[in-house]
Amino acid sequence: AHSVMLGSMLAGTDEAPGEEVLKDGRRYKLYRGMGSLGAMRQGSADRYFQDPGKGETEAKKLVPEGIEGMVPYKGPVADVLYQIVGGLRSAMGYVGAPDIETFRRKARFVRMTMAGLIESHPHDVVVVKEAPNYSR
């Protein structure tokens, strides 16, 4: 890939828009995709070629392609990016890639069974300290 979309991955950071809320003792940020009904009502309709002058932003005319919800609060964006870069460096090391271009050529996606996916995660333990780069 030459580009990625990181919307929900960065949505819980301090720098991302959205109100912070407390629910069941955990912090979250409200999140909505630009294709959500709320975002379209507040101005993203032009991205989807819907003309307010023609009455096309009425709820019945909008065709949302996104959602509104909550994402876990993650703190500063720099901390999240640090984890992403660390994961990328680790993956590059697994395939012996000294740079991104080599990584693009050498990386291979593999299909996992659901049993394999479950086995690849921590299991049969009670997590007492969560890692910043891992959640179930």
UniProtKB/TrEMBL annotation:
EC number(s) recorded for this UniProt protein: 1.1.1.205
InterPro entries associated with the record: Aldolase_TIM (IPR013785), IMP_DH (IPR005990), IMP_DH_GMPRt (IPR001093)
Keyword Oxidoreductase carried by entry: yes
Entry-linked SMART domains: IMPDH
Enzyme class, broadest EC rank: oxidoreductase
GO MF annotation terms: IMP dehydrogenase activity
Pfam families: IMPDH (PF00478)
GO annotation terms (biological process): GTP biosynthetic process
Keyword Secreted on entry: no
Keywords: Oxidoreductase
Family assignment from sequence similarity: Belongs to the IMPDH/GMPR family.
Name the record gives this protein: IMP dehydrogenase
Organism expressing this protein natively: Thermus islandicus
